[in-house]
Automatic annotation (TrEMBL):
Highest taxon of the lineage: Eukaryota
Protein name in the entry: Peroxidase
Entry keyword set: Calcium, Disulfide bond, Glycoprotein, Heme, Hydrogen peroxide, Iron, Metal-binding, Oxidoreductase, Peroxidase, Secreted, Signal
Annotated compartments: Secreted
Site, Transition state stabilizer: residue positions: 61
Annotated source species: Rhynchospora pubera
Organism lineage string: Eukaryota, Viridiplantae, Streptophyta, Embryophyta, Tracheophyta
Length: 325
């Protein structure tokens, strides 16, 4: 219990310190200009998640995919045009990324209440926090003041977003490129405790692992058999999906880490967390102290939300999240 109190104090101080480091973002940014902003977003997220709980995972992932490409600037929301394929239509994001309609609904209400004030990037950050809280995670205070970017290129996703086949070194470097530590990488990977995956993201572990083995030897054989029943060899059916955490697919909890300990991490990028003594220890700690992990997850989400933000006079406040003004 004492360790938990110390951990709570540490993470609370970390969140406060991070906020001071990025003074241009602040909690309560819309207190005077649009005091109902966060409540409006929360209401739209709650309505959507109660209708389809899977959207919570989609909205958390939307924030991650926004922040890792050109920073947290809402560029993932921009539609493609005849002359440009945008981020949302990259094969990394389409058809797997979802929740766009929730952001649009919130934006529509906000434009009616306080026109031209709340950025799409901030809506995405609020929605991710609310989704985490609604699925059992720790709520946290979101710093706001982000402005929206005006450029969205599908080609940027390939060099910025970590893939499901990444090994530990690749994952660590990908997160380091965004100013996030290896510990924060392990912590944020726990978001895979909610949501679903298309078979194509992990089927190579079942049927074509390498030149000598079809099945990835780090994958539990019983779990592999279950996955093979849902995902037949050589199938390109994009409608075939599996929960990333079969035990509690709609709860943001630490069972993701328990799965990894049982060799039931769905992606190569999940199971690879056991390939190093340091990260393996973090997996064990998170698996056996879910409350501590939730605290760390909240702090890591706050830090991720500061990646390469546009503030002040940079960027714009999009009036329609899918179109540049």
């Amino acid at each position: 219990m004492e360790l938990t109190r110390v951990a709570f104090s540490f993470v609370l101080c970390l969140i406060i310190t991070i906020g001071r480091l990025e003074a241009q973002l602040q909690v309560g940014f819309y207190a005077r200009t649009c005091p109902q902003a966060e409540n409006i977003v929360r209401e739209e997220v709650r309505k959507a998640v109660f209708s389809n709980v899977g959207l919570a995972a989609g909205l958390v992932r939307l924030h991650f995919h926004d922040c890792f490409v050109r920073g947290c600037d809402g560029s993932v929301l921009i539609d493609s045009t005849p002359g440009n394929t945008a981020e949302k239509d990259s094969p990394i994001n389409n058809p797997s990324l979802r929740g766009f309609e929730v952001i649009d609904s919130a934006k529509s209400r906000l434009e009616s209440t306080c026109p031209g004030v709340v950025s799409c990037a901030d809506i995405v950050a609020f929605a991710a926090r609310d989704s985490a809280a609604l699925t059992g995670g720790m709520s946290y205070r979101v710093e706001a003041g982000r402005r929206d970017g005006t450029v969205s290129l599908a080609s940027d996703t390939f060099s910025n977003l970590p893939g499901p086949t990444f090994d530990l070194d690749q994952l660590t470097q990908s997160f380091a490129n965004k100013g996030l530590s290896q510990d924060e990488m392990v912590t944020l990977s726990g978001a895979h405790t909610i949501g679903r995956s298309h078979c194509t993201s992990f089927s190579s572990r079942l049927y074509s692992f390498n030149t000598t083995l079809d099945l990835d030897p780090t994958l539990d054989s019983a779990y592999a058999t279950q996955l093979e029943q849902i995902c037949p060899d050589s199938s390109n059916d994009t409608s075939l999906v599996v929960p990333m955490d079969p035990s509690t697919p709609n709860l943001l909890d630490a069972s993701y880490y328990a799965n990894i300990l049982a060799n039931r991490g769905l992606f190569t990028s999940d199971q690879t967390l056991m390939s190093n003594a340091s990260t393996a220890q973090q997996v064990k700690q998170n698996a056996f102290n879910g409350f501590l992990w939730k605290l760390k997850f909240a702090a890591a989400m706050v830090k991720m939300g500061q990646i390469e933000v546009l503030t002040g006079s940079s960027g714009e406040i999009r009036l329609n999240c899918s179109v540049v003004n």
